[in-house]
Amino acid sequence: QLQLVESGGGLVQPGGSLRLSCTASGFGYGYADIGWFRQAPGLEREGISCISGTDGSTNYADSVKGRFTITRNNAKNLMYLQMNSLKPEDTGVYYCAAVPARGQCGFHRGAYRFWGMGTQVTVSS
Questions:
Q1: Residues 35-55 pLDDT 10s
Q2: CA–CA separation, 11 and 24 (whole Å)
Q3: Which end of the chain, N or C, is less packed with Cβ atoms under 10 Å?
Q4: Residue (of 5, 10, 20) closest to 115 by Cα position
Q5: Other CB atoms closer than 10 Å to residue 120's CB: what's the count?
């Protein structure tokens, strides 16, 4: 069972960058698919990126492709979301999530078993 804690959120100007971290504790992190989700005010929680625990392959939502990069360091029980060229519409609460590896990661929130509590990202002038 995994416990996940996000960090790195904050206030940033449009065009700026942030790196979110997700620290994992517990058994099986190296075999887990990891996803990043976000929820803007009044909207559904949406998957934006994930990385496979099987082969390290990644997926990105169209809204963040070319701007966000997901990585993981299993030796340190960490995953990261590097966010560049941030836009006001990137504002929201960002969550990391994990599930035992399924071969290829996805964005369906119901597939993820373990969740962090979220970290706020605000992109504003």
A1: 999 999 899 999 999 999 988
A2: 24
A3: C
A4: 5
A5: 12
